[in-house]
Amino acid sequence: MKIGIVCYPTFGGSGVVATELGLALSRRGHEVHFITYSQPVRLDQLSSNVRFHEVHVPEYPLFHYQPYELALSSKLVNMVKLHGIDVLHVHYAIPHAYAGYMAKKMLAEEGIELPMVTTLHGTDITLVGNHPFYKPAVTFSINNSDVVTSVSESLRTDTFNSFKIRKEIEVIPNFIDLTKCERFSFTDCQRTMMAGEDEKIITHISNFRKVKRIDDVIKIFFEIQKKIKAKLMMVGEGPEKEMAENMAIELGIGDKVLFVGQSHEIDKILCFSDLFLLPSKTESFGLAALEAMVHSVPVISSNTGGLSEVNIEGVSGYLSDVGDIEDMAKNALYILSDEKRLKEFKRGAVRTAAKFDINKIVPMYEAIYEKALKEK
Ligand code: GMT
Fold this sequence. Notes:
The protein has helices spanning 13-27, 68-83, 93-109, 123-126, 135-143, 153-162, 180-183, 214-227, 241-250, 266-271, 287-294, 307-310, 325-336, 339-353, 358-374, and strands at residues 2-6, 31-36, 50-54, 87-91, 116-120, 147-150, 169-171, 200-205, 230-235, 257-261, 275-278, 299-302, 317-320. It is of the alpha/beta class. It has 2 domains: 2-175 and 357-375, Glycogen Phosphorylase B (Rossmann fold, 3-Layer(aba) Sandwich), CATH 3.40.50; 181-355, Rossmann fold, CATH 3.40.50. Strands 3-2-1-4-5-6-7 form a 7-stranded parallel β-sheet, with helices on both faces. A 6-stranded parallel β-sheet has the order 10-9-8-11-12-13, with helices on both faces. Helix 1 (13-27) links the parallel strand 1 (2-6) and strand 2 (31-36). It is globular and about 70 Å long. Ligand GMT binds at residues 8, 12-15, 17, 121-124, 126, 151, 174, 207, 211, 282-287.
C-alpha cells in the first residue's frame, strides 16, 4: 500500500507515534510518504520505502498569518497525484484533518478518491480543539474523515462528550518496540556521568508545557531528595522550563536537578533511570511513560485521562490525583527505598509495556487502511 502520513515533525508525542508507525509500516513492505513542514525528528532511518515531502509556505507581505493549511492541502493533492498514494493518515486533528479534507475534495473533483484516516492524540480534543474558535472546524473534520481512531478509551470518551460526533471512533493504543532494550547495549548506559553510585536517578521527559505540571515534578523531587540521595533529570524544552530552573534554585536543589534540554538519547537516559515522573493535568495516553516502562522504569503519574490504561497501579507504578504531590512523593519513596521492591516494579513496568507491543498494534492500523480502501 502507498500511505501518506501527515504529522507534526517535532518532539511531541503525536509526531513520534506517526513517525514510528510510518517506519514500522515501511519495514512491513508499504511505501510511506511523510508530508509536513520539516523532517520528523525520529525519521532517521534511510529506506527506499520512506519519502519525506516538505511543505513550504511562501512569505507574502499581505499575510499576517502564513496559510499553512492551504499549502499543506495543495502539497497533499500534488503528492497523491505524483506518487499514487492510496490512503492518507493524518495525526492530530488541528489543522491536519481539516487540510486533509480539503485535499480529498480537490482530488474528488479530478475523479480521485482518497480515503482519510484521522488519529486523535490528545490536546487536539481536550485542550486546543475544544476552544470555541476551533471547535466547529474540528467537529466538521472529524465527522468528514473516513475512519477516526483515538489513542485511548479515555480520549474516545472525551471526544464524544465534548463534540457532536456522528462517526464511530476506534481505539488503537500507542505502541512500543519491545526489542528496543535488547538492541540497546546496557554497557553504553554511562550512569556514572549523571549520578553517584549511591544516588537514585529520577527522570521527567516532556515538552514542558503547562499541561505537564512541571512545578509538580520539582516539588515531588524536593520531597524525595529529603529522604534519599537522588538526582532529577529534566529532559525537553518548552515554555515552563525557566520557571522550573528558578524553582529548583529557590528550593536549594539546583545542583541535584539537571536540565539536559531536548535529547536524541532518550533510550540511554531511560536506561539509567530508576523512576519516571508524569504528574500531568491531562494526558490522553502518556507515551513518555510507556517509553520509560519498556526500559524497566516504574512510573509515578497522575490518574488523569488515559494514564490508568498505561500505568497499572501497584504493578508498573502508582497513580495519584492531579496535584497530590504528597501522595506522589510517598509512592515514589515506597518504590525507591527498597531494592527488592524496586526490582519488582521494574519487572512490572516491562511486563505492562508488553501489552503495547508494536507487532500487535501496527496490524490494527493496516486493517483500518484496508477498511477505508474497501469503503471508498
Ligand atoms: O505533543 C504532541 O504532539 C501531542 C500531544 C498533545 O498535546 O496532544 O501529545 C498527546 O499525544 C501523545 C501521543 O499519542 C500522547 O501520548 C499524549 O498523552 C498526548 N498528550 C496529552 O494528552 C497532553
